Amino acid sequence: MMGGPVARALPIVGLCVALATPPVFGQTDAVDLRLRLKMDDNLFYTIVESSLFRSTLYDVGGRVFTDLDRLDRTIQEEIGVVSVDDDGTLGLDITPRITKTSRVDAPHRLVQSIDVLVRPTGEVVPGVGHAGALESIYYPLGLPDHAVSPGESWTYNEKRVSWDIGKEDLSFLHSEVTFTLTLVGVDRVGGDRVARILIKGEGPFSMYSNERIFAGAVRTAGSATAHVTGEARWSIDGGRLLRLRAETSFEIPLAVEIESRTFHGKTKFTLTEEWALLPGPH
Questions:
Q1: Most CB within 10 Å of its CB: which of 43, 166, 177, 263?
Q2: Residue range of the domain that includes 253
Q3: Is residue 241 within 8 Å of residue 256, measured between CB atoms?
């Protein structure tokens, strides 16, 4: 789940508006939550992301150094179905476009499309297209492989590894989060059945970076436990995500090395992500 294509250090706290509708046929009937799209379907989502980094280093020249970094952006994501296998596996062409950002150094741009194969449970087939062999990811979230009743839970594990190697820097991130999803209830919305899903996740996160600056090399390393909370609305009959709001957070101890001196501190990170399916023909 952690945010669409890879390295959405994908993130997740309650939906903005609850759908005030009566429940469907008693709260005990099992429903099949699957990703079910047809050939040539096109879905359009608005994704709003907000991330906040707050880093603190102690005893830097006798002072405490604090840095605050925030980024808000809006993404329009188009998902096109290019193939449908007999077992329900979907070939998806995913094209994100940043339409709004709070940073002047991050211009609006069209990001290269990503081709992936996704099973009906949302599991991205590894080693195909953008999905690497070291990753176990789900898009847009993990679904059960059997029918579930309200109050029932299921789990899945998501592993992500990402790195960035440049001429003057190197960064490496690794996360492994176990998600527990619970079907809270089922509502009738027009002619559709809509599942309300509660999301919780927890797992280890580690990072390492090495960057050259005018004063020499700056090395940063640390590990922590990442926490994810969220809610989703899923169209049972349409087989697609309708809405999602999630928050990911962790506080990681830091060891920063500058010119053979090591400074200790911590970074607190929070990422919120909201998905909304745009109305219209799909």
A1: 177
A2: 42-277
A3: no
